[in-house]
Each structure stands twice: as structure tokens, then as C-alpha cells.
Amino acid sequence: MKQSVFIFLLLAIALVSVRGQDKAGNLPLSSPHLAVKTNLLYDATTTFNLGLEVRLDSRYTLDIPVNYNPFTYSGNRKLKHILVQPELRYWLYEPFFGHFFGVHALYANYNVGAIKLPLDLYPDLETSRYRGDLFGAGFSYGYHWMLSPRWSLEATFGFGYAYSDYDKYECKTCGKLLESGSKHYFGPTKAGISIIYIIK
């Protein structure tokens, strides 16, 4: 069920992307059209991240960020994950300038333990390790500041729903499996302060 909802959201984003083009398949000539970005909040957690945002028409863009953290820290602390969070954005004025609203899907595969997450998502995470998959969707708001013709700054925040299947282990590299389960979550699903480079 959760996979079907996720696939439906991705297809909906793709269909809107196609509608954003004219009948010849071309985009409007105004600029910018394409940008790359990095989220400074994820950078602060030593998570590699890179986003690509492409203009679809005079009001819509498609933002596709990918985040990856492969590290195990001292004390077997880990925030290992890969996260993909495509978002369709509607701009109140024009793409890459000012206010925007978005709808996003998300998928993550994670292996985390011996740390404390915000919002008390897993209360016993400091003494346990969780592995699993996360699926979700949400809505967001953001603002984009042009700093120069090529450089920009963006802030965004999102709220939504996520579902996770997990296995819970003792907090060791190869700890004993304690339980398997699932978790529903309503709350923040996205946060970012990003530096952006306009390619064209």
C-alpha cells in the first residue's frame, strides 16, 4: 500500500511536469531554467547532499534532492541513510524568485543508532539501533533570495506524513534483533537552508 501511494505521487509529479511544457515540448525562454544546490542543514550533519531544480513553465519547478550519509561515528553512533525527496513547486511570482509552495514525496532507507533525534521520533534510539524504510509525503513553503545572477539562498520548511517499517536491534554493530514493527508519523518532513548555483 505504502509503495503504491509513493509511486502515485511520483507519477503525479511527472504528469504535471509534462503539462508544464508547450505543445512542441519546449519551455519558455525566460531564465533561469536549471540550478544545483546543497542544503547547509544536512551538511552540518556530515550528510552528502545535492539537489537539482529544473523550471517546468512560468510558475512551476521540479526540485530533486538526494542525501546520503555512509558514516559510523565513535561509540557506534550512526545516522546512515539515503533519502530522496522530489518536490513540485508553485511560485507566486516566477521560478527562482520569492515565495513558493510545494508538494513532496519522500523515500529513505536508514540505519541509525546510539544518537538522539529531534522530536523524540524513536525515544530509545540512544540505546538501540533501527534499520528500515521510510515512505511519506507533505506540503512545504519556502522563499528564494537572488544574491547575484548565479548565486542564491533558499529557506524551506515542510509538514506531512511518513510511514516506516523497521527492525530494532541492540545498539551494537551486529546486535541481536529485538523486534520488528512499523511507525506512523505526522510532523515536519522537510527543512532546508540551501546555497544555490544557477547553471542556466
How does this structure look, described?
By secondary structure, the chain is mainly β. It has one domain (2-25, 37-198): Porin, CATH 2.40.160. It has 2 helices and 10 strands. Strands 1, 2, 3, 4, 5, 6, 7, 8, 9 and 10 form a 10-stranded antiparallel sheet that branches. Strand 4 (72-73) and strand 5 form a beta hairpin.
Can you give me a brief rundown of this structure?
This protein is mainly beta.
The CATH architecture assignment turns out to be Beta Barrel
Work out the strand percent: over 45%
Q: Distance between the terminal alpha carbons, to the nearest Å?
A: 39 Å
Shape: elongated
Structural class of the secondary elements?
A: mainly beta
Unreliable stretches: 4-29
Number of distinct helices: 2
Determine the mean pLDDT. 86
Main beta sheet: strand number and arrangement?
A: 10 strands, antiparallel
Number of domains: 1
* Elements, N to C (H/E): HEHEEEEEEEEE
CATH class division: Mainly Beta
Task: Please provide the count of β strands.
Answer: 10
Topology, element by element:
Blueprint: H1 2-19, E1 34-39, H2 40-43, E2 48-55, E3 60-69, E4 72-73, E5 77-84, E6 87-91, E7 98-113, E8 128-146, E9 151-170, E10 177-198
Antiparallel strand pairs: 1-2, 1-10, 2-3, 3-5, 3-6, 4-5, 5-7, 6-7, 7-8, 8-9, 9-10
Descriptors:
11% helix; mainly beta; 200 residues
